[in-house]
Amino acid sequence: MDLPADAHVHSEWSWDTGGPVPENAGRMAAMCLQAQRIGLPAIAFTEHLDFDGRVRFDPQDLLPQQQKYLDDDGHLILPPFDVDGYLDSIDRCRHRFPDLRILTGVEFGQPHLFEEEARRLLDLGALDRVNGSLHTLRDGDDRAEPGTLFRTWAPDDVITAYLLEVPRMVDGSETIAVVTHLDYAARSWPADTAGPFDPRRYEELFRAAMRAVAASGRALEMNTRRLWPWLPQWWAEEGGRAITFGSDAHDALAPETIARNFPEAMAMAEHFGFRPGRRPEDFWTR
Ligand SMILES: [Zn+2]
Ligand SMILES: [Zn+2]
């Protein structure tokens, strides 16, 4: 079976890869080359679109190329997304790789809070894909990522707050088509002190989040950074109709991460009744 589009990829136009600095130049093209090499028919560059402004971060959670965004009191100051630079880069890659379907997109962080800001910056409707992501939660006057919150909150509280926020994100946004990595908070789960992450402990919260996504008619992403068989299973059981596949490759982590684990993810999706569409970027549906 042909590979589906990798519908969640970051290039040098995402701030967390270090941004469009000279060291990152040509990364998008390198990722296109890798996609072509592995026979991937389509790739969506869904760059980070964040408007949180200041996000509290523990410096040890940051990669070297992200440290430069940190201010003196431990907040990350996020630079704006360079829409024109990004679109120029897409254009150049489309000319250079005519056989690869190169799709435009963003990974819109906290879309329920920042739709107005997004509208002022760009026309989301003109993009091929708008992924909606929950990366930060409110913590007092700050916003912070789960990885930072796990240092001060009880692990249960982080996962619970994250999953309770997903329905609010879904209901409060008009522009997103896909909800990404529902397991985002689990990525930074403190296994050293809390033991391995057990999704069944939060099954009802995951299912409630999925019901909200399904009721809104959106697709759920199978984020293939880590595969969970329960994700497509619970999604199907809760009325989910559509799935996308996203590696969440960041160029800083090497282009080899493009479409990682896709064959296994496709087998899982198929097992739970999801079938490909006509084009590689179409959602798989059931
Ligand atoms: Zn994300
Ligand atoms: Zn991402």
Structure, explained:
Helix 5 (155-171) runs parallel beside helix 8 (203-215). The protein starts with 5 loop residues before the first strand and ends with a strand. A hairpin with a 2-residue loop joins strand 7 (137-139) and strand 8. It has helices spanning 27-37, 83-96, 111-121, 146-149, 155-171, 184-187, 191-194, 203-215, 230-237, 262-271; strands at residues 6-10, 42-49, 54-56, 75-77, 101-109, 129-133, 137-139, 142-144, 178-179, 219-223, 242-246, 249-250, 284-285. The protein is of the alpha/beta class. It has a single domain, classed as TIM Barrel (Alpha-Beta Barrel). The protein is built from ten helices and 13 strands. Bound molecules: zinc ion (2 copies). One zinc ion is lined by residues 107, 133, 135, 180-181. It comes from Amnibacterium soli. InterPro entries: PHP_dom, Pol/histidinol_Pase-like. Pfam families: PHP (PF02811). This is PHP domain-containing protein.
**What ligand molecules are bound, each kind once?**
zinc ion
| Count of DSSP strands | 13
Q: What is the CATH third-level topology name?
A: TIM Barrel
CATH architecture: Alpha-Beta Barrel
**Count of distinct structural domains:** 1
**Mean of residue pLDDT?**
95
- Which value, in Å, is the CA radius of gyration? 18 Å
Q: What is the name of the CATH class?
A: Alpha Beta
- Principal-axis shape equals globular
Structural class label: alpha/beta
CATH superfamily membership? Metal-dependent hydrolases
Estimate the helix proportion, in percent: 25-40%
* Largest sheet report: 9 strands, mixed
InterPro entries: PHP_dom, Pol/histidinol_Pase-like
Organism: Amnibacterium soli
Domain PHP: 6-224
Protein name: PHP domain-containing protein
